[in-house]
Amino acid sequence: MSRRVVITGVGMVTPLGVGKAPFMEQLFSGVCGIRPISLFDTSPYASKLAAEVVGFSPKDFIRPASIRRMDRLSQMIAAAARMALDDAGLAIGPHNRDQVGVMLGTCFGGTDVAAQFGKVLFNEGPRRVNPILVPNTVMNAPAGHVAIELGVRGVNTTVNHHEVGAETALTYAAAQIMRGRVDAVLAGGGDIISEFFYNVMSHFKTLSPQNGGEEGLRPFDVHGNGTVVGEGAGIVCLESLEGALARGATPYCEIVGWGLSSAPTVPNGWPTEPTGPVLALHRALAAAGITPGDIDYICASANGGPRLDKLEAAALQQVFSATEQRPRITALKGALGENLSSGGMRTAAMALSLRHQSVAPITGLAEAIAELNFVCTPEAEVPICYGLINGISSGGTFVAVIFKTLVEGRGMGR
After folding, report:
1. How far apart (Å, rounded) are the C-alpha atoms in residues 177 and 45?
2. Residue 62 — pLDDT band, cuts 50, 70, 90?
3. What mean pLDDT comes out for the span 169-181?
4. Residue pLDDT, tens place only, 75-114
5. Are 342 and 391 in contact (CB under 8 A)?
6. Residues near 335 by beta carbon (within 8 Å), at least 6 away in sequence
7. Cis? peptide before 292, omega within 30° of 0
């Protein structure tokens, strides 16, 4: 595993805009993408809010014949992948298509298609089911559509790892490049909002307001009373540093290490103590060959759920509170909602932070649950050398990924 891995392109379909420019402008200005749901009637539910994708037109990115075959999630992911490829300036052709892969993470996949399939199947019988629905009910449908649409024939894998599927896919993709098995991978993930998905989250009692109070997503806040669902897709183009430089690309940043761990808990529960996430953080630091004091910026997993936020805050305190200069910490789900596969969007945001040396603030945080260096207002011209994405999933799965800036003279002081 000797090759270095860099991010050369980003693409996103998000509640804060479609594409790099609107996404960055909204996110780094502290705009919140959470609003009343328009996709379906919320009268049966106590919760009424979500971070929906608006203004997305798949025909701007996907061939008309392909659009008809894709479900909504596949359309978002394929569009984000197209944008990442274009942003990287990587042309696909016979000379390289076998060396470009796709690795995605998703939690529930195309729940709208699955619900429609089940409704027709059980109400009208199997002969009435639209055959196009069937292939789109599987988790790997978006990855397959991306490969077909973009013409890539390298490794193609989907990770179904609940809230950390996209982060896990990112590490798998980086390892493939490091080992020389592929030259580039489109990595990331996505999930969508559907009434079926919303109903499941409501029955799990994860949505705000869990215990009364005002509905909203408040990461790391003492008044956090549950999460607000989101949707969207985020894809980054990973390449070997050698290959990127050889074709004249300018990388956003380098992936320098990661750590994975787990802790025993019930499938939809959270551990009561931070041993698991602390282990992932230490493994990532060891893999990168750095210390906690080297981390400048952390993109946390906090989603307003009291148990998750408390667990993550305890882990971050244990690892980083003793450092001389505590890292800045943000939690982007306050703006993007909890779409369960937000790791792709958060990775794209991290790449933009390192390129532009800017920090996106936490929206929704008023009274912090811990004494950590939370970013509550937009910050530009911030010296960032090392950034870290922290992924925490219910069921006790943890992923930490470390990135390093490649821009000389900016954020290189430590």
Report:
1. 45
2. very high
3. 97
4. 999 999 999 999 999 999 999 999 999 999 998 887 777 7
5. no
6. 15, 16, 26, 27, 30, 31, 32, 33, 34, 51, 360, 363
7. no
- Convert 268-283 to b/e letters by CB count within 10 Å (16 or more is b): eebbeebebbbbbbbb
Q: Is 405 left (phi over 0), alpha (psi -120 to 50) or beta?
A: beta
Whole-number Å distance between alpha carbons of 44 and 316: 38
Q: 31-44, pLDDT tens digit by residue?
A: 999 999 999 999 99
Rg of the chain (C-alpha set) = 20
CA 265-268-271 angle, 5° bins: 35
Q: Residues near 187 by Cβ (< 8 Å), separated by ≥ 6?
A: 102, 103, 104, 166, 169, 170, 172, 173, 174, 235, 236, 238, 344, 347
- CA-based nearest residue to 240, from 405, 400, 7, 80: 7
The torsion defined by the Cα of 20, 22, 24 and 26, in degrees rounded to 10, comes to -160
**Residue 150, both tokens:** 């973009």
